[in-house]
Amino acid sequence: MNLNFDKQPIDILQALANWGLIFGALLCIGLVIALILSVAINPKKGVSRFFENLGEGLRDLFGMSLKRLGAITNLTIKEAVRRKALLVFVVFAVLFMFGGWFLSNTNNRAELQLSVYVSFVLTAIGWLIFPVALILACWGIPEDIRLRSLHTVVTKPVKRSEIVLGRILGFIGVGTIVVGIMSVLGYVWILRQVPEKVQSRLVARVPVYGSLNFRDREGQDSEAGVNTGDINPYRSYIEGASKARAKWSFEGLSPSVLQTDPDSGEAALLVENSFQAFRTHKGVIDEVLHGQYTLINPETNLRVQLPQFPIYEFRQNLTWIPQKLAYYNEDTKKTETKDLFDDLVSDGKLMVEARCVDVGQFLGMARPDLFLRLPDRPFASSFFKSVFGIWLMMVLIVVLGVTASTFVKGPVATILLFTLILVGTGFNQFMDDVLSGEVRGAGLVESGIRILNHGNPIVEKPESLEESMAVQNVDQVFTGMLWGVSHIIPNFNMFSFKAYTASGFDVPMKVAVLPALLMVIGFFIPCLMLGYFSLKLRELEAK
Amino acid sequence: MSENAVIEIRNLTKIYRDFWGRPKVRAVNSLSLDVKPGEVFGLLGPNGSGKTTTIKMLLGLLFPSEGEIRILGKPATDVSKNEYIGYLPEESYLYRFLNAEETLDFYGRLFDMTTAERKQRTDELIKMVGLDKARRRQLKEYSKGMTRRIGLAQALINNPKLVLLDEPTSGLDPIGTREMKDLIIKLKEEGKTVVMCSHLLADVQDVCDRIAILYNGELKQLGKVDELLASQDKTQIVSSLLSDEAVNEIKAVITKHNGTVEEVTNPTTSLEELFLQTVAESQARPGQRFVAESEKAANTTTVD
Question: From CA B238, how far away is CA B81, in angstroms rounded?
């Protein structure tokens, strides 16, 4: 089993630059609109009031009292608990009492069943915390305003920033209690439900991925291998018994990647692959395909060919490569011994070349299909990182919900946030694909003209369109707006780490956890500011 | 603006607008007044006269359309002024899932009070408002009178310099009303400034030093209660144990000095006084009950 996606580590500087650009642009737009409104409402004192409010806002945002924050946070938790928000545990208990009936014997393969259990628990926690966080966050402040209990708070020396942040922290506290208890119960449930024979598979594999390049059947470098007709171009194929190769380049390797080979007891490098076969003939019945690795020093070009190995599809194919490698040198016609780190790894770099041995058969591979394995971590490490992802999603829902609830009433805030989640879950990837050009099509205005003219994206542009720079320019503006929107709407898929845990992988920090964490922080700061100013500049008594 | 006024209001106007920004109602119109330190000031007026709107603008819950407000020398929107203000809203909009102790502890924390201070102040106030036996009950179980009492306690948690009371006696029984009025006087004796708005004129008359009467958002009267109520052309003499002869002699003296005797009666007590006296006597002599005249006659006949 393997992941069917290929995520790249986050580029923190690039992410920060993007965030700064969007945040700065929105901040500038907001300030200009506020200044215009301030002058329009009060032409004489508008400008001075604008700067007074701005200064006061900065003081309020940076000068919050921890005691008052604690009081509002504590009040929020008490409110949620006494209003029976924790009844969600009843639903959780029912799910887990009877879930086992439907999940057991879903598949005869025990390792797949493990994945089902893990997915079930993580999905259940995610789906149960989602409505709790949504409703609590969207209804807290509006109800406080409706019942006027907020009047007795704002008439104390409480800053509006403390109200917004206190509410956010309180709801996060409630969510943390719910997620914490459910995850511990879920973890225990998994340990008890998983069949004994696959208990040993409850680990978190730690992969080290490289970058992938191909060589075609002529031995020339190419970006991809052969497409065997699969509509999903995720895997590329290399032809057996030809010069076609797949080359993984690893960087930053050190002897710490070595483990002890359980058979020989020696230090060795563990390589795992999950190649897929594409057969052009049935070959030998009951025989699997074979592959072969060659280790290459990218500096000296020293090549060490390893023995052939069988490839079992949909299984973990493990190869232990001993640190002291004995191999047959084709040039010297002698068996020689090389040290993996002294001779093959230069500056932490190593190349692993894979080939398909069988004539007329193909092996399919994607970047994550081959990786070096570091010593496994406990299953709990991966499981609780996935729970952390759910927790981050809950935090973001709370932050967005509380912010929305400072300027609209509860039902509207709920619908607004629900829409945001829907778009952020289902359409974010689509927007990214449109922007990156993966989805073919024209801009908004050009598409409109083509629809009116009964054209389609394949039809050549009418001459009038080619010449019309105005259309192109307007479409550029819309594309820019789409870029902004795609960055403003959070991608909620980023918080789902369960594919890693269910596949038996540890959740990678730089690829999964860090981007999700940064996204929450990235939304938290502007949301807090927006919520504060929204609550400060509105008349709480106004209907 | 006046140097030593606790509240200074100048040309205060509040216009409620509709969604499109068109003026809907002018709730307060060019109101100007000062409240001095240590006085009990009453805002009077019929429903819709702008009393509560004015109080809410003082607290920053509503923003003035025009004019200026300064409380304790600070603008109404400055939250730091709230350090010295206590506010009892018209209804006690408290968190109904908290009990009395938790309520006061929560509001105490909003003033950055230490745990020891909060505990001490909570005990004092709960005893003061007579909720000692109900201190652990959630507010949703409280009667309206009890809710007003805990509302008052939260308004005083910070030992404020200025207390704003919106309809302080509404929902209280006569004993509670009297206690509330006694408390307002006690606050004044402690040197605090109290601003209350009410349409219960007797309550205002009993406790306020100065009043402002609003009508349709405009200030119609402003001054000391005694001065506003005093009839300069009339004289009242109250005496006890006067015989009819003495009364006739006094009438003759008045006539001799060209005065007119308009009315000679025995003064009646107020209903509030009668109620309080009855309750006090009932507590002193439990078991005694009122016997109607007809019942008395029937009992006498039976004994005979």
Answer: 47
Calpha distance A232→A230 (Å, rounded): 5
Look up residue A361 and give its two tokens: 């058969």
pLDDT tens, per residue, chain B with 304 residues: 555 789 999 999 999 888 787 888 899 999 999 999 999 999 988 888 888 899 999 998 899 988 999 999 998 888 899 999 999 988 778 999 999 999 999 999 999 999 999 999 999 999 988 899 999 999 999 988 889 889 999 999 999 999 999 888 887 888 888 888 998 999 999 999 999 988 777 888 888 999 888 888 888 888 887 777 666 677 778 888 788 888 889 988 988 888 888 888 777 666 566 666 767 776 777 766 666 666 666 666 554 4
Angstrom CA distances, A15 to A42, A390, A526, B166, stand at 40, 22, 16, 53
Task: Enumerate the residues of chain A whose CB falls inside 8 A of the CB of residue B102.
Answer: 78
The DSSP code sequence of B199-260 is S-HHHHHHH-SEEEEEETTEEEEEEEHHHHH--TT------SS--HHHHHHHHHHHHHTT--
Tell if the CB–CB gap between A149 and B83 is shorter than 8 Å. Answer: no
pTM of the entire predicted model: 0.83
Which residue does chain A place closest to B111, by CA atoms?
A157
In eight-state DSSP terms, residue B134 is G
Q: Which residue from A278, A274, A280, A275 is spatially nearest to A230, judged by alpha carbons?
A: A278
Residues from B in contact with A at Cβ < 8 Å: 16, 56, 59-63, 79-80, 82-83, 85, 87, 89, 91, 93-95, 97-98, 102, 106-107, 109-112, 154, 158
Across the interface, whether the CB atoms of A75 and B95 are under 8 A apart is answered yes
What the block records as the tokens of A393 is: 């999603």
Check if the beta carbon of residue A340 is closer than 8 Å to that of residue A321: yes
Q: How far apart are CA B75 and CA B81, in angstroms?
A: 8
